[in-house]
Hints:
Layout: E1 5-8, H1 14-24, H2 33-42, E2 47-52, E3 55-65, E4 86-94, H3 103-117, E5 122-128, H4 132-137, E6 141-142, E7 156-162
Keywords: Transferase
GO molecular function: acyltransferase activity, transferring groups other than amino-acyl groups
InterPro entries: Acyl_CoA_acyltransferase, GNAT_dom
Amino acid sequence: MSTPVIRPILSSDLPRILEIQAACYPPELLEDHPTFQAKLSFAPDCNWIIEVTGIAQGYLFCHPWQGETPPALNRGEQPWPNSADRFYLHDLAIHPDGRGQKLSTLLAQHACDWAQQQGFTMAMLVAVGGADSFWRKLGFSDHPRQDTSLSQYGQAVLMQKLL
Length: 163
């Protein structure tokens, strides 16, 4: 098995990212190209793709965030915060062809390590579709306040982790 490579996401990766996303999420949770491009523009240093034998098998979009209310889904034009008090892991997906290789764990750990090196002390995310069990294995716990804005994410759990 080839060693996975994690690298920053480039705009040229977005078509493959849209393919991976479509293979992983139901239609109501899909985000569009402009939203992904806006995330890249807002936080270009903390979005990563993972490749195996040169083929992108997964991605993780992250960004600084302010407050306990999660960002809106599929809203590239949303107001990005001027300051941040936490690191937000927004979207992690692994193509079905890449599953079983612990790629999601590698990406999540890479992101949390990066955030800690940048001085963040809290990470936050919304786990969808039963993914909260995966995140608990990585040290995340349910946030004490489950925000009403989570309904846009379907079955979802707001989670956090001290870094």
